[in-house]
Amino acid sequence: SSTSADAAPGPSIEIPAAHASLQPLSFMTGSWVAVNPNKTVNRETWMRPVGNAMTGAFVQMRRDATPGFYELTSIVAEPEGVMLYHRHVHRKLEIDDRRKDVDVFRLASVTNDTAVFSPINDQDGGILSMTYRAEGTNVLIQEIAFKPGSKEQNFATRYVREAGR
Predict the structure, then answer these.
(1) What average pLDDT does the segment 13-24 reach?
(2) In angstroms, how far apart are the furthest CA atoms of the chain?
(3) Cα separation of 69 and 28, whole Å?
(4) Model-level pTM?
(5) What is residue 161's three-state secondary structure?
(6) Eight-state DSSP code of residue 95
(7) Is the Cβ–Cβ distance between 92 and 101 less than 8 Å?
């Protein structure tokens, strides 16, 4: 089945409905912003699921309001499960030599506006899980948990829905 998108006058555009396995991730849809302890600003936007995919874009803005880095993410319903593909790039869209490959995660669980992804090929080698969790309709929490013995520390980012988005 498909739905019509709101558009300017003219021919209607048919947008495929979200694959059933992606519908529970709809809580992530929207534009989100967070201020980090060092006063940099994270902006993350998730498009609603359409067909077998949903797309996310992230930028971290430095304190002088210039972009620090970007991330592009695609969540795709695949035959082997729901996969999250993640690419980190520098501010001029250069790829770091240490991060040439795309990070790949598999959806491990999704319940009650919480989605947990487990790494398939985490390049940094230390991520145990990546979790997105809604708190109501205007807060999205992203939690990154690292494996015991990792040099990284677990962290959570609390995003709030951008006004008017």
Answers:
(1) 91
(2) 58
(3) 21
(4) 0.85
(5) strand
(6) P
(7) no
Tell me which residue of 79, 96, 40, 78 sits closest to 87, measured CA to CA.
96
Q: Which residue has the tokens 């795309």?
A: 102
Q: What would you report as the CA-atom Rg of the chain, rounded to the nearest whole angstrom?
A: 17
Query: Residue 133's closest CA among 119, 112, 161, 104?
Result: 112
Using the structure block, give the residue that is written with the tokens 């899980």: 129
If one counts every other C-beta atom within 10 angstroms of the C-beta of residue 119, the result is 21
Residue pLDDT, tens place only, 135-156 = 999 999 999 999 988 888 999 9
Q: How far is CA 65 from CA 35, 56, 60, 162, in A?
A: 12, 21, 9, 17
Which tokens belong to 122? Answer: 């985490």
CB-based burial label for 73 (10 Å; 0-12, 13-18, 19+): buried
Q: What percent of the residues of the chain are helix, what percent strand, and what percent coil, each to the nearest 5?
A: 5, 55, 40
> Nearest CA to 107 among 125, 84, 124?
84
